[in-house]
Amino acid sequence: MSNDERTFVMVKPDGVQRGLIGEITSRFEHRGLKLVGAKAIQLDRELAEEHYAEHEGKPFFEGLVDFITSAPVFAMVWEGKDATHQVRRMVGETDPAESPPGTIRGDYGLDLGRNLIHASDHEDPGSNEREIELFFDDDELLDYEQVTAEWQY
Ligand code: RTP
Ligand code: MG
């Protein structure tokens, strides 16, 4: 478990439209994670289908691609100790109705199809690196010292 694990996070169209980019990103900042990449983009179907390829053929797949391409998203890369697992714990369960208060989905969502945020799956090893590569070029990612780190680790 390294202190510089990187994970991919995306505020979905509902989160952007509801003005929750700041609320969501500030949670990761306050937790002590380091932001190493960020951009607002609108996904085309090709990128959306590749990103959610594991769900191809499932009944919700087309609706999921429709939704995720329907408006801009805010894509980010966060770095820190055990980042992929820790971010997923902060995100909550897939269904916001099953996510405890204190999690992002549990605090801001009610509906499975409108769950505000995507984060790489710690139970799918390599998904973090695969997703970062899919959304970001190397020169869009930063490598810098965060002065608070010595107080955290
Ligand atoms: P995500 O990939 O978006 O971070 O969500 P997740 O890991 O928590 O959940 P996943 O199983 O990867 O599902 C991706 C998205 O598909 C929608 N979904 N709908 N039964 C259903 O109707 C159903 N199951 C999943 C959700 O919006 C979920 O975030
Ligand atoms: Mg997933």
Automatic annotation (TrEMBL):
SMART domains: NDK
Enzyme class: transferase
Main location: cytoplasm
Listed GO CC annotations: cytoplasm
GO molecular function terms attached to this record: ATP binding; metal ion binding; nucleoside diphosphate kinase activity
EC number(s) reported in the record: 2.7.4.6
Cofactor(s) the record lists: Mg(2+)
Catalytic activity from the UniProt record: a ribonucleoside 5'-diphosphate + ATP = a ribonucleoside 5'-triphosphate + ADP; a 2'-deoxyribonucleoside 5'-diphosphate + ATP = a 2'-deoxyribonucleoside 5'-triphosphate + ADP
Residues bound to ATP: 12, 60, 88, 94, 105, 115
Cytoplasm keyword on record: yes
Active site per UniProt: 118 (pros-phosphohistidine intermediate)
GO biological process entries: CTP biosynthetic process; GTP biosynthetic process; UTP biosynthetic process
Keyword annotations from UniProtKB, A to Z: ATP-binding, Cytoplasm, Kinase, Magnesium, Metal-binding, Nucleotide metabolism, Nucleotide-binding, Phosphoprotein, Transferase
Domain Nucleoside diphosphate kinase-like: 4-143
Record's subcellular location: Cytoplasm
Pfam families on file: NDK (PF00334)
Transmembrane segments: none
Record-linked InterPro entries: NDK-like_dom, NDK-like_dom_sf, Nucleoside_diP_kinase
Family: Belongs to the NDK family.
Xref: PANTHER family: NUCLEOSIDE DIPHOSPHATE KINASE
Role description: Major role in the synthesis of nucleoside triphosphates other than ATP. The ATP gamma phosphate is transferred to the NDP beta phosphate via a ping-pong mechanism, using a phosphorylated active-site intermediate.
The name this protein goes by in its record: Nucleoside diphosphate kinase
Organism: Halohasta litchfieldiae
